[in-house]
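Render this sequence as a predicted structure.
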Amino acid sequence: MIKKFFPRFQSIIDKSKLGKKGILAFDLGSYSIKIAEVQIIKGEPILTNFVRGRTYKNVIINGIINDFQYLLSNIQNVLDVFRSNTKIVNLSLPYDLVIFDSFKSSHIPNEEEIKTKINDEIPYKIEDVYYSYYIIPKKDFYQIFYLVAKKEIIEQYETLIKTLEYQANNIDADFVNLHNLIEVIYGEKTKVIVDWGDSKIKLLFCEKEVPIYSRELFNLGMKNLRKDIIKNLKVDVDTAEALIVNPERDNHPEVKKIYKNYIKEVLDELETTIKFVTGKFNLTIENIFLVGGGANIPNIGEILNNSLKINTQTIDLKKFVKFSDNFDPDYTKIVNTQGAIAVATAMRDFI
């Protein structure tokens, strides 16, 4: 499990004194805002609330805040619906905003050696970034994985949280939080985490202990499926959204054809990438875990399982995270898919 995180935001909370104040977790995307709340009830963390709302167009572009004031208003509107007294916030940075890479060493390098090596490899000056790292011993060498984010980006998100009159507890990479939570639930497995979002699909390949490789499939996000449905069926956005969730609706035979072509394109890219990564790192993938809006495509787990011959599933958060009794059972599926990163972010202090 990856235990390191950006040193600027070490935990400020004393979990034994959290009471019912708990932690809020922000997962801010270009298409939607997800917020999860974890409270300590009778000594254990409970997921007490989850909400998602639409992000204003172009407010966040590739993870970067493009319009601070609109985003501030956007989040506040979601929080008004949320109605929480919790003021402590964890936030996940999207993969777009971090550099994740590794290098090899014949010995365990000291801090200064690691800092120098990172400085040589990144396109920024080391004094302009926050960084963290972890060292994995191999048979004949040590592999040093590092995570880097620009200070100005992290500080912008810190300012956002402060302006909302909340307190930043931790800011970390979304895939770190997600990897750790999946490992706790399912154990150490070689896996691919497929974050099937609106603008793109993010792939994270993991050895039994750590992430080792990532790739983003641009132009294969859910918005492409939505655009094809709108273009071919001449329907509005709301109808297209409904058809994505339920392609059998209104008996549109053309929808199945659009779906089939879209999924085939995704499968081809997945298969090509898996072959490349497993060959490069000498891996055998045991599981594929689906998160994001695309994980709600009807029968998508079964389709990937049959096509790629790899066990594919969405995450069952209830195997580790207790849900409060007020959750609608039908809403749990949304939390397991589109809310997975937010929940993992909220639970990071309890893993």
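Summary. Confidence is low (pLDDT under 50) at residues 2-14. The chain is about 35% helix and 30% strand.
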